[in-house]
Every structure is written in C-alpha cells, then in structure tokens.
Write a structure and sequence with these properties.
InterPro entries: BCAA_transport, Leu-bd, Leu_Ile_Val-bd, Peripla_BP_I. By secondary structure, this protein is of the alpha/beta class. About 45% of the residues lie in helices and about 15% in strands. It contains 12 helices and 14 strands. It has helices spanning about 5-25, 40-60, 80-90, 105-115, 145-160, 170-185, 205-215, 230-240, 255-260, 290-300, 310-325, 330-340, and strands at about 25-35, 70-75, 95-100, 120-125, 140, 165-170, 190-200, 220-225, 245-250, 270, 345, 350, 370-375, 375-380. A 5-stranded parallel beta sheet has the order 2-1-3-4-5, with helices on both faces. The protein has a 4-stranded parallel beta sheet with strand order 7-6-8-9. Helix 4 (about 105-115) links the parallel strand 3 and strand 4. Helix 2 packs across helix 11 (about 310-325), helix 5 crosses helix 6 and helix 8 (about 230-240) runs parallel beside helix 9. The protein is globular and about 65 Å long.
C-alpha cells in the first residue's frame, strides 16, 4: 500500500473512530436524591429504582443507540445541599436531563437553576407548587397534595363526615398540604373545626390530639405529613382512645407505614397510587402489568418490598426515556417539548397526559382510596 493511500485509510479510520465516539457518548441522567437523612425512606428506593432500570435499559441496548449514565448525589434531606449538587450536575457533569428532587424543598431549590440552564427536570416530590404556576422545564410524577386532600374529602363526603380536624407537619410537604387542604375544604362542604401542627422531629403528638379530641363536633381527623410523624400520630391516637375515622395523606403510602404504626393503623384510610396493591387490581386495569412487573423486578433485585416512592422514580425515568425517544435526540428543548406532549403514558402513578398548562398530567382517578385492614391494604369500594 503506497504512503498516500495508507494515509487516506488511516484518516478515514480516525474520522470513523471519532464518529463512533460521538455516537457512543452516554446520555447523562442527573439525580439529586435524599438517600440519607429524614427523607431517606423516600430517597433510598428512588435511587435503587433508577440504578436498577438504568442497568436494565443499557442491557437492552440503551436509548437512541446510546447507553444511559446515571450521575447521582445524596443531599442528606437538606434542600440547600440539593441546590449545590444541582449546580454541579449542570455545570460540571453536563447532564442531559434531571430525574430527582426527593422532597418539595429540594425540588424548589433546584427549580430556578434548571429553568435558567434550560434543562428538563422531572421531580419526584409532592407539592402542587412544583408545577403551579407552570415552569417551562419542570415536570413531576407524584400526585399533588391538593389531589390528596380532594380524594380524602370525596371519601369523607360519601361517609357524611363534614366537620374535620387537620393535623399537619410544619415541613415543606406538610405545610403545603395544610394550605391546599384549607383551600379545597369548602368545595367539598367540609369545615375545618380544628387545625393543629407538629414539627418533623416531634416524638409525641398527644397534646395536639388531646386538643382535637376535646374540640366540639369533630367527626374525623386528617393527618398531613411524611415519615415517622404520621406513624407516631397514629399510635398516639390509639393510646388516647380516639375512635373517630382517621385519614392520612399519600405521604405514608408505603409498607413502612404499616410496620411503623403497627396494629394502631387498623381502619386508617389514605389515597395511594396503584403501586401498593398490584395483586388487588382488576385483571383489565391498564396499570396492572406496569405495577406488577416493577414490583417483581424490584423485589428480585433488592429482596425488599416496593414503595410508591420508588414508583415515582420509575415513572420519572420512563417518562424521560420516552421523551428522548420521541425527540430522537438529547436536545434539551426538543426533550422538553416531547415531555410536555406526553399522552396516554401508563406508569405506576397512573396514566400521564401532560400539556402546556399541566406538567404533571394525572387526574383524581389515578389515586386509589385504601383502608388498612388486618395489617394490610384493601381497596375502598
């Protein structure tokens, strides 16, 4: 082979290698989660879910011919740290999309950064403030706190309960839940005759419950909080001999709540995504195959029960992958537009139908009203 031909072949090989490298660049999915700290019971299954399915998708050849790479940080349930890690994901790691934000506080501290950078962000947190008012690049997978209050009030109305005591946590989720509950009560003919709060680190809510117990006319109690708090409330409720119907929010929709509250949780009702009850869904329920396969995969990988919180991460990742496929690229504006155009996407939280005015895309029918009976979840018919 003469020298100039050899040079051409080498040049072609280099160009080809360069193109190959470009094509093989991984799609970077950034994530800031609360894997430790008070919100770890949310963040831990979220991270496990993302790791499980990123590996699974890569095994099957990735997305648009590229492998996925998960770049994640633990904010330790601290919203200020979430802000710093989001900056790092955007500026240093150069991620293509963000799936994370375990808590409302963490999400809201990251939101201005992703808006400024123009990076699609799918949050895994609950409060309605994340998507109202609509932010161009911010989306979310869990049902909102407002929807939880509406679902609870719908059920109370059916049971003829109109005078309600609210007990909420002073954290981001609880505070937003309190505000939304107060805002929609009137719409359902509900009067809040007592309105108490407790701190996220409180270990005894008997004083608040004693006040509620002695409030004239109370017919039911609605608790809005996350983690240990609502379980402590449930136990205190039993200890004080209160027999009124007790409702919780979707903030406790996990088997951990059953373990923490124990027998005291008997009769408690709460709204939940379908993820807690795969085996109890009707055979023709469109969500049944999705929640069943997620539950089986998660249990096989981690030898532990699934939670709705892991489900939010599954939904976030799958919505991201679906949008990237439809955009045919990782161009951030195109992916954002594809996310906003999501229609009829069946996931663990429900069927997502997004629009320019709705960056969550779930309606009340995607919530199931559950009651704890015999230490297990049952569907309220």
């Amino acid at each position: 082979m003469n020298h100039s031909v050899k040079k051409l072949v080498t040049g072609a090989a280099l160009v080809f290698a360069a193109f190959g490298a470009i094509a093989a660049d991984p799609i970077k999915i950034g994530s800031v989660l609360s894997v430790t700290g008070p919100a770890a019971f949310l963040g831990d299954p979220e991270l496990k879910t993302l790791q499980l399915y990123v590996a699974e998708i890569n095994k099957k050849g990735g997305v648009i011919g590229r492998q996925l790479q998960l770049v994640h940080y633990d904010d330790g349930s601290d919203a200020n740290k979430a802000n710093g890690f989001t900056k790092r994901l955007i500026d240093d790691d150069k991620v293509d999309i963000l799936v994370g934000g375990t808590t409302t506080g963490a999400t809201m501290s990251a939101a201005p950064l992703v808006e400024k950078a123009g990076i699609p962000f799918i949050s895994l947190a609950g409060a309605v403030v994340i998507v109202e008012p609509v932010k161009k690049f911010v989306f979310k997978t869990p049902h909102t706190d407002r929807m939880a209050a509406e679902k609870v009030f719908e059920d109370m109305k059916k049971r003829g309960l109109t005078k309600v005591a609210l007990l909420s946590e002073t954290s981001g989720f609880g505070a937003s839940g309190k505000k939304e509950t107060e805002a929609v009560a009137g719409k359902y003919g509900i009067t809040l005759v007592a309105n108490e709060t407790y701190g996220p680190k409180d270990t005894d809510m008997s004083p608040q419950l004693t006040k509620i117990k002695t409030t004239p006319g109370v017919q039911a109690v609605f608790v809005f909080g996350l983690g240990q708090g609502p379980a402590i409330v449930t136990k205190n409720y039993k200890q004080l001999g209160i027999t009124l119907p007790l409702y919780q929010s979707h903030g406790v929709a996990s088997d951990d709540f059953l373990k923490l509250a124990g027998p005291a949780a008997e009769g408690v009702r709460l709204p939940s995504p379908a993820q807690l009850i795969p085996e109890k869904l009707a055979a023709n329920d469109p969500q049944k195959p999705v929640v069943t396969s997620y539950e089986q995969a998660y249990k096989a990988a981690y030898k532990t029960d699934v939670s709705t919180f892991g489900g939010y991460a599954y939904d976030g990742l799958m919505l991201a992958v679906d949008a990237i496929k439809r955009a045919g690229s990782t161009d951030k504006a195109k992916v954002r537009d594809a996310l906003e155009a999501t229609k009829g996407f069946v996931a663990t939280s429900g069927t997502f139908n997004m629009s320019p005015t709705d960056h969550m895309g779930l309606d009340l029918s995607s919530f199931r009203m559950l009651e704890i009976k015999g230490g297990d979840w049952t569907i309220v018919q």
